[in-house]
Amino acid sequence: MNMIGKFLEMRSFMMVLAVGLTAYAQQAYFGYVETPVNPRSIAMGSSGTAGGNGGFSFYNPAAIATIDSSFVAFEYGRQWGDLSAGLVETAWLFPKWFIGASFQTQSNDFEVTDDFGNRLSSRGTEQASVLSLQIGWKSGRYAVGASVNGLQHHLFHSNAYGVSASGGAVVTILPKKLIAGISVIQAGGYYSGFYMTQFEVNRRIMPAMGRIGLGWNDTVIGRLPVTLFLDAVYSSNFHTVMIPAGVEIRPLHALAIRLGKRFNHETELLTTGVGIYWENLAFDASFIPYTLQGDLESKWLIGLRYSLAAKKKSPRSEPPSSSEIKSGRSSGGSTRDIIQPADEG
Prior knowledge:
By secondary structure, this protein is mainly beta. It is built from 5 helices and 14 strands. It has a 14-stranded antiparallel barrel with strand order 1-2-3-4-5-6-7-8-9-10-11-12-13-14.
């Protein structure tokens, strides 16, 4: 490639870098860590600071304490354009503490053009990953957790690496009913960026998020289990506050229907999804219609989760009554591990 071609490719490189693995402008490197994970949480507006849905490195490391059994989960889907995303996650509970780990990856392959729209001879590739390790402690109604995250971002022929930390807490306000959570994600760290100036090296901007949320579990119309999540999220990367909110209803023991919205998000219209359960297996899917430069597009994510502890079988197929949920006597886990509190004592 001649010198002019190299110059044009570098200009295209910097234009792509300005956007990275997101669809709109950002202020920090590694902005892809702000892409929501977990199809169940995504379907409910990407809320989950107070819930044990999964994706703890993104929502709240302490929320592991709210699950009812250790698990292994896998996810795969399509995000912006041809961007593919995947995640492997596991979490393990112990009497007074818990641990978790996840590996998230995103990748894209795209054409490179100059300022006049002429296609260059080479194609561009972008790949990013996050390895997170979580640990936490729980006592009574309270739990705290922390996460260490290793980040990697490959773009064209260059690589960037980083390390960051996250932390959070959850508290059970009403047993079996109401849980509150708070977290700071990517609170601080160090990284090497792409062709950074000395000013950028000194700033070391990380895409940090502050999250606070509530989770509520109850029944309506007598016996219909309903879960509500409401979060408030501040992004230092985009200098904005978003309000993720969502609802899940369980019309059948083996079926969940979800709907939500990430209010004040620039492109997403709403979020939808379903969950299908069979014994220790849970299949979840989320679908998000969004607009990008006036075009209507869609994102999707599917996940499979296996609970390692055997669940009790329910002697009946209908959901438990409201009084049973309040007293904690329901069997079969028909409300699943939606908002299970930390161990009492």
